[in-house]
Design brief:
single chain, mainly alpha, Serine Threonine Protein Phosphatase 5, Tetratricopeptide repeat, 2 domains, 72% helix, 0% strand
């Protein structure tokens, strides 16, 4: 199976009135694994992070801890978006969707969050049109269960906007990015995510008209956000700065790009 069977796991009507499965009696320590994972990422030890995730996914499966396995799969989705391993990424998408389908998690916030991760992975590997029904389903589940200001909407809107942009639905893409900016602005330390969204908008405008003056405005704004003195210079900042660097390079902001690259290196080196 390359992606998903006809009985779509994101059809919420499948889950109404069906009780959730019994919890595992011997679950893995997901918060502990995530703490260790964050430490590896902050130190730039990516290969060790992959080994950690694969080991604990296998351990969760051996214990019958499907929730723990789903958590590890969700982390693996993000990992393989970064390392570009299409085969492993699609395998993780399929495994996560299967677990959500089997355990009737598609209409829950936690299940929708994994679906968001899976849709983002599909988009990253050139399958934007297939991702859009999943993003739209996640939007409905979040809308039914979360406060409109919840930070999780920011990730949804940004990633859904990227898929709409790939599908050349420019109006919907810009609408999503603008909604993301509104949510992010209300969050703590918003500079990282605001910068990423500005880069997304700049690339959206470029796809429609490379001479659009809003491109430069968005990139300068992204630079200002990344240089907010109140913004913590930690591993997450290095990660989000790395996401912005290709945009600065593409639009010719080479001095900004070089400074960000040096900053990322210093953060990962602990200096």
């Amino acid at each position: 199976m390359d992606y998903i069977e006809p009985a779509c796991c994101f059809d919420s009507s499948v889950y109404r009135g069906i009780p959730d499965a019994e919890p595992c009696r011997d679950p893995i320590d997901v918060p502990g694994v995530i703490r260790e994972l964050d430490g590896l990422y902050n130190a730039g030890r990516e290969k060790e992070a992959l080994s950690l995730l694969e080991r604990w996914r296998d351990e969760a499966r051996s214990r019958g801890d499907w929730r723990g396995e789903l958590s590890m799969l969700s982390e693996l989705l993000g990992y393989h978006r970064r390392d570009g391993d299409r085969d492993k990424a699609m395998a993780a998408v399929n495994a996560a969707l299967d677990l959500i389908r089997i355990h009737r998690m598609g209409a829950t916030v936690s299940g929708a969050t994994v679906l968001l991760n899976a849709a983002t992975t599909l988009k990253a590997f050139g399958r934007a049109r297939e991702s859009l029904p999943i993003f739209e389903h996640v939007s409905r589940v979040y809308g039914d269960n979360l406060d409109p200001a919840d930070y999780r909407f920011a990730g949804l809107y940004n990633n859904m906007g990227l898929s709409y942009a790939d599908a050349e639905d420019w109006l919907q893409a810009e609408r999503c990015f603008r909604l993301a900016l509104k949510v992010i602005a209300r969050c703590k330390d918003p500079g990282n995510e605001l910068a990423v969204t500005c880069c997304n908008l700049a690339e959206l405008y470029d796809k429609q008209d490379p001479e659009d003056p809003r491109i430069g405005e968005c990139m300068e704004q992204a630079w200002e956000y990344l240089n907010d003195p109140a913004l913590p210079r930690n591993g997450y900042h290095a990660f989000t700065a790395s996401k912005c660097i290709p945009s600065f390079d593409y639009f010719g902001y080479f001095l900004y790009s070089r400074e960000l690259k040096e900053r990322v290196e210093r953060i990962y080196a602990g200096t």
